[in-house]
Protein 1
Amino acid sequence: MTMEERFQNRIDQDLKIEPKDWMPEAYRRTLVRQISQHAHSEVVGMLPEGNWLTRAPSLRRKVALLAKVQDEAGHGLYLYSATETLGTPRDETIDDLLAGRAKYSSIFNYPTTSWADIGAIGWLVDGAAILNQVSLTRTSYGPYARAMVRICKEESFHQRQGYEIMLTLCRGSAAQQAMAQDALNRWWWPALMMFGPHDTESTHTEQSMKWKIKRERNDNLRQRFVDMTVPQADYLGITIPDPDLKWNPDRHHYDFGEIDWEEFWKVVKGFGPCNRERLEARRKAHVEGAWIRDAAEAYARRQSEMKKAIA
Amino acid sequence: MELFEVFIRSRNGLHHKHVGSLHAPDLEVALENARDVYTRRSEGISIWVVRSKDILASNPSEQEALFEPARDKIYRHPTFYNLPDDVKNI
């Protein structure tokens, strides 16, 4: 048996791969790409929500949103750690993001123009992310799977706080209901796009399924999301902006319209409404945070010198 | 910044368990960062941080040499010993 066959054998038996185990270079590369993209998504994902931190309508909403944004920073860190176990230094991973070489979830390239967007993001964006992440708790690379377990545990509050915001707006004044509807109109299609291209179009799906990096196909997850979300929208009393959406009793699933793939690829390629703004914000934060990293290093150096002097 | 591994005891009576890693300039700051990153929901009552470079890990390719010898020593397990069913509490 070659190393590669032995590796595949382990995967087929559902055994996890751990950092020091032998793995094909392409497996390592795929993981580094996927986990770091996932990490970047958590980090960039803080930006659209950060936009509303100072303008949350009540203290209750504000502490919740602050905790959610803090969680996302934490999730980014778990994932950067997981990337690092594959031998890629963290500075390199972060440089890739700042230089615009790395991708992150396109959903964060859409603007948050009203408070209702914070509700819609928690409900739809975190809802879609949870489906994907729950499937990834069974991914073949141990550190990634373990990070996913932690993240999923923490995510469920994110979705519930989002839905609660939507519910409050939908039980409120006509203007608040209109706000909620408008947010759904703008976030529905980008949320469906989060699951990626059709499996038939997806370049990585087959190999990733074989290696069990990916455990479910894009279209399956997307269908599950639609099936899950439609009744939730009905309960809110707002309308999903898809004229083709209807229950199919034969399939026992909702049928839904085709995604605007042109828009999807446009945003992926960097021409979405906020791509440039998001990267600029990240770069600015990185540069403006340099002094604190330097100060921490200097303090650590001084402390160790002082300890040596005493000893 | 250095890499640190983080271990957390979730409650008294349990072992510290590895939960992940983080970057910090020194041990003290690593401990503070570990609190923020890994115990936001009261996941622990005690934290250990260790410099990753101070950990010596066994090599997966030496797995056989290290762990095989235990496999054929079945006399280390209680089920190896045949006792009549009539004998109780043993």
Protein 2
Amino acid sequence: MKRFAAEFRASWNLMIEYRIMVAIWILTIVLPLIMLAAWLSIAENGPVGAYDRTSFISYYLAALVVRNMTGMWFIWEMDSELRLGALSFRLLKPMDPIVHYLAYACSSKPLRLLILVPLTIAVFLVVPGLKWALDPLSLVLFVASLAGALMILFLMQYTIGLFGFWITRSLSVNDFWFFTYSLASGYLVPLDLFPPAVHDVLQFLPFRYTMSFPVEILTGRLAWGMSLQGIAIQWVWVVGIYAFNRWVWRRGLRRYSAVGA
Amino acid sequence: MKIQISVKSLSKFYEVHQKEPGFVGSLRAFFTRKYETVRAVEDVSFEIGEGEIVGFLGPNGAGKTTALKVLSGLLFPTSGEVSVCGFRSFDRKPEFLRQITLVMGQKNQLIWDLPASETFLVNRAVYEISQSDYVDCMKELTDLLDLGPILNKQVRKLSLGERMKCEIAAALLHRPKVLFLDEPTIGLDVTMQARVREFLIEYNRRHGATILLTSHYMADVVALCRRVLVIDHGRLVYDGELESLVERVSPVKYIRLVTQHPIAAEQLSGFGEVRSIDAFKATLVVPRERTSAVAARLFQLLPIEDITIEDPEVEDIIGRIFTEKLLSK
């Protein structure tokens, strides 16, 4: 834990160093806003499924918050460390590199929160009647669901990053992954607007638990029992992906150390 | 003496794929890759005792870096046994990693956009160094390496020499007992090289650390190492004292003389090989054991003003070892 704290501190200082960049990053997450604009014009002639215009705004505002608080962008760092051999230094330390990358991935979150809170309040002031569940219980469940979503996304990206042991361009795998995530998580389109068959399938994939699920809690679409169940499922995914990750890690290391670190 | 590093018949081969240049070459490589086995290290054995400083010499691509990586546990050996501080390197047990360090002069472990002190704090936590040890160690390193003025500058703004000092400090915070140094002085100016050498000698003296280093600068090797390992094409061709290596591969000395009158090459040819001649000055190459006899005869037969006897530069000798294959079996 001390080690995580130290790594976190250093990465946090790095974020402060790049503070303007982080602000720009947040503003560049415009995908939900573009989708929102599209849906708003469609919803002008009456609600789409269960969504009227305010529901769409509530949904995409929540999606923006979830994306910022759970999004992972450390694979670029990992990719360059792997290719340039900086990973060797991490392997020489008595600490698993996963701690470093997790700390690095989490370190921008406080800064993002700092910018998101006033942004959200501003939207609430401008748009009347937004449907968010802001009671303490929902908020606690929401924060818990963010933690689970963050861990799933972290482990997914870390595992893809580890593919870099075999292929020089794990980043293109990540691009493909992002495409799948955008569609299957509810980031671009609320999942309940998909045909029922697709919707049902998506319930069994981890993607829903990284975006749609926290958004559903925040927009008050889930009873708290369902929320708890969802959080439990999140951690089942975390454990499963972690186990896979460790397997990939061991094989990758064997390869790294066979062909020249 | 306690053995700190023990290497028995170590070999490390790996396969690299060959790519022909150009578009057609790329295409061909895409479909059928040709693999070639690189024998980076082949059947190498040696032992190094606690507190020794040993130089690891060889031309580029001889296998020095590969060997250091195997020793520090980054690479898995193809065959053979490697034990450092009593641990099998490749297991990379935390207790092992706490006792060693690897400095690669061409690579960078410091966090690029932050001051070096940030990396130190991370390393402090990673190695679980207690507050009092950390303060002691930082004080020592700051004194020896003169880090004071540069600790709080961003790494990217440091000069190469300043950065290297910080790299070394970051690598030694946990007071390792075994140091693997790969070109620790590369790219540094002469003063800074000397500084790093003095530091290494002092660190070795204070902590009894074992040091295995590679360097392209002979001055490093001469100043630091009594013993050298010479590796060529992955094979160990020499293991012993630097001095005996010099005697063995270069059994000659240089006699430099200054004469009162101009002399001609023919006058000197009977004394030894004439390396250079310029009216009043000349350099002769003579066998080591005949040096004093030749010098005495020169005094007798020629109008000598001044005479000096010198060993050849170690740099030349090492250069000759590899170009002329003097040690090949």
